[in-house]
Amino acid sequence: MQEGPTARDFLTLLGLSLIWGSSYVLIKWGLDVFTARQVAVLRLGLSAIALAPLAITHLRRVRLGQIPLLIVVGLTGTALPAFLFPVAQMYLSSSLTGMLSSLVPLCTFLVAWLVFRDRPAQRQVIGIALGLLGAIALAYYSPGGQGGTQQLLYAGLVLLACFCYGTSANLVANYFQDVPALTITVVSYFLVGLPALVYAVAVGEVIPTVVGAGHAGAMALLYVSILAVGSTVLAGLVYYRLVQRTGAVFASTVSYLIPVVALLWGVVDGEGVVWIQVPAIALVLVGVFMSKRS
Questions:
Q1: Distances (CA, A) of 197 to 32, 108, 162, 190
Q2: Where would you find the membrane-spanning parts of this chain (predicted)?
Q3: If phi over 0 gives left and psi between -120 and 50 gives alpha, with beta otherwise, what is residue 93?
Q4: pLDDT digits (tens, 9 = 90+) for 83-98
Q5: Which DSSP letter does residue 103 get?
Q6: Predicted TM-score (pTM) of this structure
């Protein structure tokens, strides 16, 4: 029987929201030196290094026939978003990207509905409509040099990343009920991170970029390392421990805190804020809440 949330659990939830909500500004700072492709392969490769000790143990807990689908889980849940977010953030602010990422639960439900035929309730359909309406307003009216229409285009990359996360979650829910969540995470991350590590070192020109940029290169590498080890590996492990202690419902409330942290980082880093962002993100979060199961 799971324990009720304690003060430590609430602090853990706050810590997770701070770590995951800071991911987008770390990507932004990494892009000061690296290309979007380099940020992605570095993030994946460094995650693979950090997970290597755990991967040796957890690879033994999956069947050989499960490996191909776990690779698909890794591609949709880790690899593709790792590329999509930096590409989007070449044109969008980190705060806008972070706020749009709150659509993950809504996209997860949409995939369950459209692909896995999970019948929705009327409340959930209304939630989807409200969430998407809020996301459109958020992307169109948020300050940025690209203009409203262009921002909508690049916001589509963030939405695609959210659908990738939703696809991964549904694959796990439908095909890996007998495999511990931690094993799925470690193995899927490692399987897609190892090739990225090889690419980053061999042909990704990461090392010459770091050396050529001097101090700025070292700092950018530090930011991406924090992103990989902190936001991807450590936070993932802490999150699953929180799920075990308190249940998925309590742990999933981190989704509502991440966009707030991303917005605050945007303010600290000098990104513009307009009043329309507040009701727009509120509309997104109401939509996400309504689209979730009871």
A1: 21, 29, 24, 10
A2: 7-27, 69-92, 98-116, 125-141, 153-172, 179-200, 220-240, 247-268, 274-291
A3: beta
A4: 999 999 998 888 889 8
A5: G
A6: 0.88
